[in-house]
Design a protein that fits this description.
The protein is built from 18 helices and 22 strands. The protein is of the alpha+beta class. A hairpin with a 6-residue loop joins strand 20 (687-691) and strand 21. The longest helix has 60 residues, at 445-504.
Length: 713
């Protein structure tokens, strides 16, 4: 048992490692920039070498930073003319939380002004440009070249004079020169991290509009999918309350769908721009706190007895404490616990994954796929926590990861429901069948007995037939053994006599002739054993074939060229006759076959023709294409001018233990070549037959079905 668990766990961990490697590779690909990243230095960003109309740029780097000042563009120009260059710069995107200023580190609350000068190329100066603004904590104003383009919330110098709001915006403008002066006022007194924490993009209006619409469509698709899946599972629970897995899964999915409205493109804010900011944040954080507990209960329903009672009690207490904290405290307090809440959710998932590993090792249904999608979800959730804390380059991946997790769970629940319904139908059907059979047996017991007797008789007949076949096969094997024993005994006895003659030095002058005879008989015995072994493999289906479409005319040309000298060295004429077929270009035959095996079968037929044809005779190969029952067949004929075969023996010559020797000919052979040929041809779906009048010559026909008819033109 321990060995089984050890092997199973090793396989499960291999799956996990493969999933993690794939995710890390995806993260590296997503986080690597497609083009060189241009960064601003001391509030100046040079984009003269960039083409913004087709390649938007993120306004990253050092911006001018005026802490605890709300300056307009005019104020900044006056300040610059009076005091010269600015001394304080801040990296964007980042929060001003912890920024060192005059020997102190700033808190997350406060207000500031940011400034950036962008130098454009001459081409971009004449283009309609756009700025894609993310959600910024927690109110801001943006001027471009002195014109107020965006205002979200109400900027103020204290908590009472400002109005927080989160919204993504896309603003358009036409630059009048090759320089853009961006001035942004930001104030935050509600969140523990203030400032511009996400990327601002500058680019062509068409490109950024398309990108924004695609992001919006993606978020709406994910949200709609989660909500539909969640409501569907809640409805399933209402119809069948005994199984609580759809309840927890439905709640989990619906809550994730609601939370996705407050992330990404902030769909909810676009629908209800006046929705209270504080309530929006509380909903988002409450869903985040509850998700770990709900998924734990769902896991406990799918895989019972894997969640300990102490962990279940502990997660209720911790989740309840965080929910109370979010409800009774303002955002400035509970947002400081984002990392702690994230750690709690991640610990939930890690605990569940440990249980999933145990379930997967024990081969519980659905455990492995549950484990793999949990790894994906865990990585995307961890990445989002890192991103919202400014430690990751890939942001807002959890909706996609959770959607993958949700779809996988939907498939798992559906398979469980389908299996349950199928089992119920099967049991019902089996009970109905049993009942029908009992009724039928009660109504007509005599007929049933008669049918059973007839069935037993049929089985007996089948057994008798099988026995006869086995007996016939055994007789054939005995005959074959006797045949092989007889053929081997004679050459072996002769070889033994010649060996003794050499040892006794009977006629030393003929030793070389004796050795030659021994060698020839050894080769013959070895060939006969190889042919017998190969034929046995053919008959038992142990020979594999590499089937591929072969054009018959080039194949026969190659075969003829390969064996032409062999036949002619035997004193025979060798002719290839496919002229008529080759001239008919539109019907060149193609056969699905193993070329090497068919070549072996044809050579056996040619070798047989050579064996029974005297010197000066003829061996002729021909090819014709025939149509039978609306199907095309390629027929290869091999004709010789030998001594012929008696018509009554034409069917027997393909048997493995049959050999035809005409008196006075002295022809030696194993008698296995034609049997091997028949097995190979039949394995290709073809057939082989022979014709002869028994007086002069014989013709062997090999027919194959054509798969494709190709033409040269």
């Amino acid at each position: 048992m321990r060995e089984i668990l050890r092997v199973g766990s090793r396989k499960v961990w291999l799956y996990i490692i493969a999933a993690v490697i794939g995710l890390v590779t995806g993260y590296v690909v997503l986080s690597s920039p497609d083009s060189p990243r241009l960064q601003s230095e001391e509030g100046i960003l040079d984009l003269t070498q960039a083409q913004l109309s087709t390649n938007p740029q993120k306004l990253i780097g050092k911006w001018a930073f005026y802490w605890q000042e709300l300056l307009s563009p005019e104020d900044m120009r006056v300040r610059s003319a009076r005091e010269g260059n600015q001394d304080h710069w801040i990296n964007i995107p980042s929060s001003w939380l912890g920024y060192p200023l005059e020997g102190q580190r700033l808190s997350g609350t406060g207000y500031a002004t940011f400034g950036l000068v962008v130098h454009l190329s001459e081409q971009d100066r004449d283009e309609m440009l756009a700025l894609r603004l993310p959600s910024i904590f927690n109110a801001y104003k943006l001027w471009v070249n002195g014109e107020l383009l965006a205002e979200v919330g109400e900027v103020g110098q204290d908590k009472h004079s400002m109005t927080p709001q989160l919204e993504t915006k896309l603003v358009y403008f036409q630059p009048e020169s090759d320089t853009l002066e961006l001035v942004m006022q930001v104030s935050n007194f509600q969140h523990h991290r203030g400032g511009v924490t996400k990327n601002i993009e500058l680019g062509g209006s068409d490109v950024l509009t398309t990108k924004t619409n695609l992001n919006l469509a993606r978020d709406m698709f994910i949200t709609a999918s989660l909500l539909v899946i969640g409501l569907y599972n809640l409805l399933l629970f209402m119809l069948r309350r005994k199984d609580k897995a759809p309840l927890y899964f439905g709640l989990f999915t619906v809550l994730l769908g609601i939370r996705s409205l407050f992330n990404g493109e902030l769909i909810f804010t676009q629908w209800l721009p006046h929705f209270p900011w504080e309530l929006q944040f509380k909903i988002e954080y409450l869903i985040l706190c509850l998700s770990g507990y709900i998924i734990t209960m769902y896991f406990d329903c799918i895989f019972p007895n894997y969640v300990s009672r102490w962990f279940r009690l502990g997660t209720r207490i911790v989740t309840g404490a965080f929910c109370i904290l979010v409800v009774v405290t303002p955002a400035i307090i509970y947002t400081k616990f984002l990392l702690v809440i994230g750690v709690m959710v991640v610990l939930h998932m890690i605990y569940l994954m440990i249980g999933l590993v145990q379930a997967a090792v024990r081969r519980m249904e659905g455990a492995l796929i549950f484990l793999l999608v949990s790894v994906v979800t865990l990585v995307t959730v961890v990445n989002d926590f890192l991103y919202f804390n400014g430690w990751s380059l890939v942001g807002n991946t959890s909706p996609l990861g959770l959607l993958i997790f949700t779809i996988a769970q939907l498939i798992l629940l559906s398979s469980r429901s389908t299996r349950t319904a199928s089992n119920e139908e099967r049991i019902t059907r089996e009970l109905q069948d049993v009942n029908d059979k009992l009724i039928e047996m009660n109504m007509n017991l005599e007929q049933t007995v008669q049918e059973r007797t007839q069935a037993l008789s049929t089985v007996h007949d089948d057994l008798q037939t099988s026995y006869d076949r086995l007996l016939h096969s055994e007789q054939g094997r005995k005959k074959l053994l006797a045949y092989i024993t007889h053929d081997l005994r004679m050459p072996l006895s002769s070889m033994l006599g010649y060996v003794e003659a050499i040892q006794d030095r009977v006629k030393p002058e003929r030793n070389e002739q004796y050795l030659k005879y021994i060698r020839e008989n050894t080769i013959r015995i070895n060939r006969m054993i190889e042919e017998l072994s190969f034929l046995s493999h053919l008959e038992t289906g142990q020979v594999s074939y590499r089937m591929e479409p072969i054009q018959m005319i080039p194949f026969l040309h190659g075969f003829f060229e390969q064996y032409e000298l062999v036949v002619r060295d035997a004193g025979l004429d060798f002719i290839l006759d496919i002229g008529d077929t080759e001239d008919r270009r539109s019907i060149l035959p193609v056969v699905e076959m193993d070329a090497k095996r068919i070549e072996q079968a044809l050579f056996n037929l040619v070798s047989n023709a050579m064996k029974f044809t005297s010197s000066g005779g003829l061996v002729r190969i021909a090819l014709v294409v025939e149509v039978m029952n609306h199907a095309r067949y390629a027929t290869i004929s091999i004709q010789d001018s030998g001594m012929g075969i008696p018509p009554d023996q034409l069917e027997q010559i393909f048997e493995r233990n049959y050999r035809y020797d005409r008196p006075g000919m002295g022809i030696e052979g194993s008698g296995l070549g034609l049997a091997i040929c028949r097995e190979i041809v039949q394995a290709h779906g073809g057939m082989v037959r022979a014709e002869s009048d028994g007086k002069m010559g014989a013709t062997f026909y090999v027919t194959f079905p054509c798969t494709v008819i190709e033409g040269k033109g």
